[in-house]
Every structure is written in C-alpha cells, then in structure tokens.
Design brief:
Helices cover 70% and strands 0% of the residues. By secondary structure, it is mostly helical. The protein contains 4 helices and no strands. It is elongated.
Length: 73
C-alpha cells in the first residue's frame, strides 16, 4: 500500500470515530508530531543556540578536540 492509500484509509478510520475523546487524542497526537523541536526548547536553550550561531557567523570557532575537553570536564 502506498502512502496516499494509507492516508486515505487513515482518514476513513478517523471519520468513523464517534468517540470525541478519542478524536481529541488523535488530533493532539498529530499536532505533537507536527510540532517543531524549537518550541520544545526552553528560552535559555534557544538563546544559547542563537548565541552559538552568531559566534560561528562572526568567525569564532573552536576545534572539535577543544570542544570535547570543555564538555567532558
């Protein structure tokens, strides 16, 4: 069965659900799967990533071996 056929079968199954609670669970599951990992990060984590990107863009880099030494202390 190809992906289009699978999606059609899934939609048919969802349309046949009469249980509102189950319908809500399916909807929440789909939303969760579609969500971007970025929104799951804390603001501090987001800021640290942005800062790292800015440092890389400005030419501030460290070698991989130095990086490993920093994180394994």
């Amino acid at each position: 069965m190809n992906i289009q056929s699978s999606k059609i079968e899934l939609v048919k199954t969802i349309l046949d659900i009469d249980n509102k609670e189950l319908t809500n669970k399916v909807a929440k599951f789909i939303q969760k799967e579609k969500s971007d990992f970025w929104s799951e990060l804390s603001f501090k984590q987001q800021d640290e990533i942005k800062e790292g990107i800015q440092e890389l863009d400005s030419g501030k880099r460290v070698s991989y071996s130095i990086f490993l030494k920093k994180i394994t202390r």
